[in-house]
Amino acid sequence: MRLFDSSKRRMVDFVPLKEGEVRIYVCGPTVYDDAHLGHARSAIVFDLLRRTLEALGYRVIFMKNFTDIDDKIIKKVKESGRSLEEITTHYIRRYLEDMEALGVLRPHIEPKATESLDAIFHMIQRLLEEGIAYRTEKGDIYFDTSKDRAYCSLSHRCDEESLSRIEPDPLKRNPADFALWKGCKGEGDICFDSPFGPGRPGWHIECSAMIQKYLAYKEGPYQIDIHGGGADLLFPHHENEAAQTRSACSRELASYWLHNGFVTISGEKMSKSLGNSFFVKDALKVYDGEVLRFYLLSTHYRADLNFNEEDLVASKKRLDKLYRLKKRIYGVSPSSVNPTLRDEVLSALQDDLNISRALAVLDEMVKRGNEMLDRNPKERGVKRELAANIEFISQLLGVGGRDPYSYFQIGVDEESRARIEALIEERSRAKRERNFEVADRIREELKEMGIAIMDTPQGTVWEKI
RNA sequence: GGCGCCAUAGCCAAGUGGCUAAGGCAGGGGCCUGCAAAGCCCUGAUCCCCGGUUCGAAUCCGGGUGGCGCCUCCA
User: Fold this and answer.
1) CATH architecture of the region A318-403
2) How far is the CA of A358 from the C1' of B39 (A)?
3) Protein CB footprint (7 Å) on chain B nucleotides
4) b/e A307-324 (16+ beta carbons within 10 angstroms → b)
5) pLDDT tens-place string over residues A327-349
6) Is residue A273 scored above 80 in pLDDT?
């Protein structure tokens, strides 16, 4: 497997720290609001990475955190009058629902920052002992970036010109220094007891501490294999994570750093501060989760994806074709996946998750499958292999695993269904009587209801348009 | 200002030194069909511009132009 490593800024061969096993950490959401499409994309691309590694035979341990203590959450607590726990529990549940709708496999480990305070204390303590962290008069504890020789080796973005943009803070020794612990601001602040007095952790420390606690190998130059997250986290978040672990544990956090591109709207990054966020829950009202997943998956993970409905529809049509093929082989039991298909898809994904190449192989399989079935519709061996191919694909990409008939009838209620089927029956009768005028009128009527029908040797089937 | 990324057909998008530049959507033509739909076949590219390196460049180098990101919370 080849991956683009952000730290080295080039493509590298992936070699796991322990043979046959891969440990991955991905930065999860701060749970103060619903997930938007950017969160969805990040989750989906790293889910693809996980599935690919699993398909290659690795035992994967996948971890994703919930940041459940943070300025924005506290702000929400104050505004809403609800408790911190109420809010974070709510948004964690919402996140998990969204992820499930998008076919994202549940991580093996899902720690929360507030449940990892012991590990956080421990790491801060170490940094204080080593003289790398310092306290300020306000009760905050900062990380002294000048004490870490390798600081900036990940993001390569800490030249003076850049750092001069950071708002100066007289309490900090260096501009890039960041808070490990924020002392309690008094009345109204949400604070935890700690060996350093009441307060709460800084944003970056939780990841380093939780990785060490839950996921890290105990020995070796690196703690875990892969650390992933959105490209906006590279600096300062990941740089700081790396610095903390390096300084507290005397080794590197991850041997590979991966970053996904943004979801943009009209070419601009989707973000809550820009107010152009598109929430997953809202998208799911209009588009099926699987279609959304397929769309977000179909652009290479490092490139930006400019969200628009036209491309999403094109993506849906591409997925439709897979499901139509699946209809044609309905009910047959799968034999074994075509080895060439398997190799080609996996070798594409092994090339830094080249999804475009993988999907081109998939399209080719669909086309050739249809062609073979056109020529010989009864060929059982072909059908069984196609069934196996589709099963393989659906495992790997997380799309195409559904019942093909229900896929085309998503969102149609029982009442409409009965009406549609009655109309189709009426039309079939008309057709038998060669009353094509009536038959065509019924087709039109169905079309107006948003239903397309198609006559097949097995009878008339319908799809929601 | 610093550090980066990107620019391939109407749209999305692979390809990063060498046969006719993948694939999908849309469009056009055909086969099939009572008519359709679906499916299949055929059909589309001065690879942003200008220089350079090379026998040969979308692909490498230099310079432009345009777009975007990080440096502040961010997936």
Assistant:
1) Up-down Bundle (1.20)
2) 22
3) 1-6, 11-15, 22-26, 33-41, 67-75
4) beeeebeebbebbeebbb
5) 999 999 999 999 999 999 999 99
6) no
